[in-house]
Amino acid sequence: MKSTFLKPLMLAAAISGLALLPACSSESEEPAGAASTQEEGTRTMAASLNELPDMAALNGAISSAELGSIFDGPGSYTLLAPNDSAFEALGDRGQVLMQEEQRPILVGLLREHILPGHLTPENIAKAIEDKGGDVTMTTLGGGDVTFSMDGDAVTVSNGDGSSARFASTATAATNGVIIPVDTVLVPQDAPQG
What we know:
Helix content: 25-40%
Number of helices: 9
Oligomer: single chain
Shape: globular
C-alpha cells in the first residue's frame, strides 16, 4: 500500500525536478506540440484563474465548490483546467453539477483535476519521452490520470473513458501551474442531465 502511495509522489518530485533543466540550458528543448508555459508571475493560481480568458465556467465551478482557498494558499498544485467549451460540452449534465445538492460531487470532480506539485506541459512531455510511454499520476481526489502523447499533443485520461488534450498555453503562478484542457474529465458515476 505504501509503495502505491509513494510512487505518484516520487514521480511528481522527479517531474518537478525536470523543471530546472530547461532553466539551466541556453537552448529551447520544448517537445514539438507541447503547450508552452507563460513565465511564472507574482500572483497565485486563484488570481491568475480570474484573469484567464475562457475560464469563466471553471471559476464558477470552483466558487460553487468552495475550493478557491486551495488555489490561493501556499501549497503547490497543477490544475488541469477545463476551458469554457469543455463545460459547455457537458450540456445539462454540467448544469446538474452546479446545483447545491450536487456540491459534494462537484468537489470530487474538481479534485480529480488537481495534481500535487508544480508540473508544466514541458515537464510532462519530457517525462513521457524519458519513460518511453504513458505516465500516470494520482490526483488530489485519489484517482489516477494518465498522460500520453497523441502525435505532437499531450493528452490526459482518467481511466473512466474521459480524455482531454492540452488546449492552450499554461500559466505558471506562485503556487502552481494552470494547464487548460479541452474536456472535463468526468467519472462514469457523475450525475446525468
